Structure to design on (396 residues):
């Protein structure tokens, strides 16, 4: 049996956080520790000797779903997260999506219902704070596991590596052309008028106003991350989705050298008689590999920075965990800002000096949208003070 190219998320129990430094168990303490972490001028000798040419003063940020919860999106492993409340939840796998017409119907029906919330959500104060930290010169790169594109929207000028792609675009698995997700939503509504009416009814009654799993469950829905709304016993097999317009106009040559063909019904819905023209979200699904250039860019971002700060991630996904492991192997200071346990965190802080005041490592449990703006203000105040002192010295 072929081993999956992308490992499934870690689902074991996560240990409770050990706050580092100990005083970082309050908002004021966490603000101070994070400020020290981001502004520390020193680095370990081991890091300096192993990575000549890196910028020891810059931090690479690694974010997960937790940073987007304040934008109204669903979490994975928080107290109200999908994996916490819905133990039977199973995301669709890449091979299942590309080979199974019925699985695609179910996927696109649930995505159709969940797209409105995802599309209207906006970056929150945590994302804006990351932008401010970048403008102030504390951040070199942002690496995100999220597929909501909030980082790109909040700070397009800050280099951002989207490990798992983004939901706001589709890509054809045969000709590789792309299509905006908003256009696809319009096509889905046209092909599925009864589903479109059902969606309008749910929006009108407020059934989709919250992505909190408990509130959704009370309304007869199952809420999953990434714009996935499951309606138990819904007739998913009736759902229709369009073919790739590029493949429909110019059938591609398939990977095995044979000629592809696309057949649609009278309304333009993809037919199972086709062997090409299948669109998928431009995200890395489970069982699908991350593109080599994205993987290399993320590794290079770690190698070129002086420290890494994890925000809103339990590192349950291997693609994120291995980057922090890489940082640990390079003796980089590691910071984690996350509500709840983080995979392997006890190893990331092993050997940390008891005298550490946050400059060589920090672990705190605060809401990113609340604590990060406080950190920005503290650092901005420090920069203003340093500028004033320098100006005074020049005048003397």
């Amino acid at each position: 049996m072929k081993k999956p190219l992308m490992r499934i998320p870690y689902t074991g129990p996560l240990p409770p956080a050990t706050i580092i430094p100990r005083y970082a168990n309050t908002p004021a303490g966490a603000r101070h520790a994070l400020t020290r972490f981001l502004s520390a001028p020193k680095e370990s000798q081991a890091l300096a000797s192993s990575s000549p040419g890196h910028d020891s003063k810059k931090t690479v940020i690694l974010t997960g779903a937790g940073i987007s919860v304040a934008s109204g999106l669903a979490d994975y492993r928080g107290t109200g997260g999908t994996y916490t409340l819905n133990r039977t939840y199973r995301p669709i796998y890449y091979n299942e999506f590309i080979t199974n017409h019925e699985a695609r119907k179910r996927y696109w029906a649930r995505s159709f219902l969940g797209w409105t919330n995802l599309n209207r959500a906006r970056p929150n104060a945590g994302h804006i704070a990351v932008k401010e930290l970048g403008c102030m010169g504390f951040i070199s790169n942002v690496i995100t596991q999220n597929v909501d594109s909030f980082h790109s929207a909040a700070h397009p000028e800050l280099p951002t590596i989207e490990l798992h792609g983004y939901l706001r675009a589709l890509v054809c698995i045969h000709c590789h052309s792309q299509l905006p997700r908003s256009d696809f939503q319009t096509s889905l509504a046209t092909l599925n008028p009864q589903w479109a009416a059902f969606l309008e009814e749910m929006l009108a009654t407020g059934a989709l106003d919250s992505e909190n799993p408990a509130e959704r469950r009370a309304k007869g829905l199952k809420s999953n991350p990434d714009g996935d709304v499951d309606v138990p016993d819904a007739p998913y097999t009736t759902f229709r989705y369009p073919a790739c317009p590029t493949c429909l106009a110019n059938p591609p040559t398939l990977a095995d050298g044979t000629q592809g063909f696309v057949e649609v019904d009278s309304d333009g819905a993809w037919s199972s008689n086709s062997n090409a023209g299948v669109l998928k979200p431009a995200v890395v699904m489970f069982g699908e590999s991350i593109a080599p250039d994205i993987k290399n860019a993320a590794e290079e971002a770690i190698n070129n920075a002086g420290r890494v700060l994890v925000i809103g991630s339990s590192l349950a996904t291997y693609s994120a965990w291995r980057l922090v492991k890489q940082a640990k192997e390079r003796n980089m200071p590691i910071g984690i800002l996350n509500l709840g346990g983080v995979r392997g965190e006890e190893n990331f802080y092993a050997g940390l000096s008891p005298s550490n005041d946050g400059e060589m490592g920090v672990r705190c449990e605060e809401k990113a949208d609340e604590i990060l703006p406080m950190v920005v203000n503290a650092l901005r105040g420090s920069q203003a003070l340093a500028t004033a002192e320098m100006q005074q010295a020049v005048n003397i």
Notes: The chain is about 40% helix and 15% strand. The chain has two domains: 22-69+125-163+292-395, 80-123+166-283. The radius of gyration is 23 Å. Confidence is low (pLDDT under 50) at residues 1-7.
